[in-house]
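To: structure subgroup
Subject: Chain for Friday's discussion

All,

I'm putting the inputs and outputs inline so they're searchable in the archive.
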Amino acid sequence: KGCPNCGHEWNSREEFLADPTIKIIGYQINTKQLMGGLFLFNHDCCTTIAIQIHLLRDLYTGPVYPELKMNMEGCPGYCSDKYNFKPCKNNCQATFVRQILIIVQNWPKS
């Protein structure tokens, strides 16, 4: 992945996530194609970099539920707020995305 603004390049996903100049800032859901959603990162050069969910999907190994329950009874609405990083306890298809957000947010910086 490369920064479209300053041209800085990362040779691996691990290098990107461990870079202290990178900070995850949010998640933009795609309700029609969940894997087409985007994780949003800020780079120190004042650029936002979007990475599709499927590129970080393997970071989570827990259960994935078959049904998207966004805006249904019991939904706390976290996915509607792209800057919300709270874990969701709903048995919803998007719950694994919330877990990836937390994993990435807590990734050790080098």
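Points worth raising on Friday:
The beta strands are 22-28, 38-43, 47-52.
The mean pLDDT is 93.

D.
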